[in-house]
Design a protein that fits this description.
The protein has about 260 residues and is of the alpha/beta class. It has two domains: about 5-130, 3-Layer(aba) Sandwich (Rossmann fold), CATH 3.40.50.2300; about 135-260, Response regulator (Rossmann fold). Helices cover about 45% and strands about 20% of the residues. It has ten helices and ten strands. The chain has helices spanning about 15-25, 40-45, 65-75, 90-95, 110-130, 145-155, 165-175, 190-200, 220-225, 250-260, and strands at about 5-10, 30-35, 50-55, 80-85, 100-105, 135-140, 160-165, 180-185, 215-220, 240-245. A five-stranded parallel sheet has the order 2-1-3-4-5, with helices on both faces. A five-stranded parallel sheet has the order 7-6-8-9-10, with helices on both faces. It is elongated and about 75 Å long.
Length: about 260
């Protein structure tokens, strides 16, 4: 988080209301800015580091609830608190159809408003903390392995997603864009893992995730007494970033993941 983040933006056409809200919501450690209309707010939001916005329903350009999609397009994570001086069941129902965090009726209690703003900031921090956890994708057709390795990864605060086949793995890679992939070598065929690893590293389809580290996980050594040799350069295939034998040792697995994610 940069020093300019964790800020509040107040959008209200009435200068007296902006001043009153500024006095009510000003506090140490939280930046605050104001705007008198939607156009001014739109200019300030990109790069402004705002976590929360307090906005009146009646704006010069349009209704505040109509502006919500515009503002969310600029910053999907922005928490919006909508205010109005004159409420009605119809208006409240219309406002609540939008992606707002809270709805206030003016004049409102200052303590209630402070609590709502604090709650909005805390919610934003929780979401940012969750999104900061590196995401590990486990691609393996063995449900027992997926079930065993998931708690190991979660214990180290990794977000975990899984796939049980080659095709599901491809779709999940593109949808989730993981930070690292644990990939079984043998699934439907002996070479599924080799094929997918090569595609990740070389195929235009995976160009957005080409730098994602891949760790092969295989039980071949446990079953046959020796590792399955990777048909590397002689076959023209791009290899994994690491290889680990099943059953995995938790400490060893986490150390290898941490090493690759630091690169």
């Amino acid at each position: 988080m940069t020093p300019n983040e964790n800020r509040l933006l107040i959008v209200d056409p009435d200068p007296r209301v902006r001043q009153a809200l500024t006095e009510t919501l000003s506090r140490a450690g939280r930046g605050l800015d104001t705007a008198c209309n939607l156009a001014e707010a739109i200019k300030k939001i990109p790069g402004g580091g705002f976590s929360c916005l307090v906005m009146d329903v009646d704006l010069p350009e349009m209704k505040g609830y109509e502006a919500v999609p515009v503002l969310k397009n600029l910053d999907p994570g922005l928490k919006i608190i909508m205010t109005t001086r004159r409420n009605s069941k119809k208006l409240e129902a219309r406002v609540r159809r939008e992606d707002i965090f809270y709805y206030f009726i003016k004049p409102f209690g200052t303590e209630e408003l402070r609590l709502a703003v604090d709650s909005a900031f805390n919610k934003k921090k929780e979401e940012e903390a969750m999104s900061d956890d590196p995401k590990i994708l486990v691609i393996d057709d063995d449900p027992d392995f997926r079930a065993a390795v998931t708690p190991i990864l979660k214990s180290a605060l990794y977000e975990v997603v899984t796939a049980s086949s080659l095709e599901e793995g491809k779709k999940t890679i593109l949808a989730e864009k993981p930070d690292l992939i644990l990939l079984d070598i043998m699934m439907d065929s002996l070479f599924d893992g080799f094929s997918l690893c090569n595609d990740i590293k070389t195929s235009p389809e995976f160009r957005e995730v080409r730098g994602t580290p891949v760790i092969f996980c295989s039980a071949v050594k446990d079953m046959a007494g020796s590792r399955f040799q990777f048909p590397g350069d002689e076959e023209g295939l791009a290899g994994p970033d690491d290889y680990i034998d099943k059953p995995v040792k938790p400490k060893d697995l986490l150390a290898r993941i941490q090493k690759l994610l630091k690169k």
